[in-house]
User: Fold Oxidoreductase molybdopterin-binding domain-containing protein from Flavobacterium ginsengiterrae.
Amino acid sequence: MKIKNFILILLTAFFCVMCNSPKKDKEQIISSEKALKTDNDKHPVLTPEDSLKMVNHSIEVKGDVENTLNLTVDSLKKMKVATLDDFKVVCQSGEVKKDNKVCKGVLLKDILEKAKIKQNGHKDRNFYIVARASDDYKATFSWAEIFNNPTGENTYILFEENGKPVKNGEMIAICKNDIKTGPRHVYWLKSIEVYKVK
Ligand SMILES: Nc1nc2c(c(=O)[nH]1)N[C@H]1C(S)=C(S)[C@@H](COP(=O)(O)O)O[C@H]1N2
Ligand SMILES: [Mo]
Assistant:
């Protein structure tokens, strides 16, 4: 009888350990995700030297495209340049981060048309476009947004703000008709990547 009880206690203890350990792992994962999220939520203030290291003099258009492009401010100036009035950068929090009277840039749509997305017939439309910065901040667009929606006429790669070269890199991806324009305002722009949904 005593041995039976002993085995029972052993088994109960064993199951308790088995049930608790994955829970602990899960808790640890959640807390590290939380830490990451808090870091991501910050608006980092870099020294001028460090922010200079993030600047790219050209952006690469790559992925599922016929022509990989390397675009500079000069090459954008040779494309169809648009002037935008009153462009505010508003953070998800509602805070106005930037208030530009005029900006100059080129439609992302025109850039993608130049790069030619590799489409296999007219039903092959499930592509997403990533605008990525050197700090790995990124924003995503869909094929339909750019080519079959008014957003396509409002998504630009900017190179000039208020008559001056843009700050924080040489080119910035923006979407003028977003409700909060901060999230898809990608400065230190490094690449525009086209991928097909698998
Ligand atoms: N490369 C890069 N672009 C970015 C961010 C960033 O951290 N890195 N922050 C975004 C956020 S959260 C906002 S609100 C706007 C304005 O941010 P700023 O105040 O850092 O200029 O830029 C966006 N673009
Ligand atoms: Mo933000």
The pocket of molybdenum atom (ligand 2) is lined by residues 91-92, 182 (CB under 6 Å). Residues 48-196 form a domain with the Sulfite Oxidase; Chain A, domain 2 fold (CATH 3.90.420.10). The chain has two domains: 1-42, 48-196. Strands lie at 59-63, 69-71, 81-90, 96-107, 127-133, 138-142, 155-161, 164-165, 172-175, 189-196.
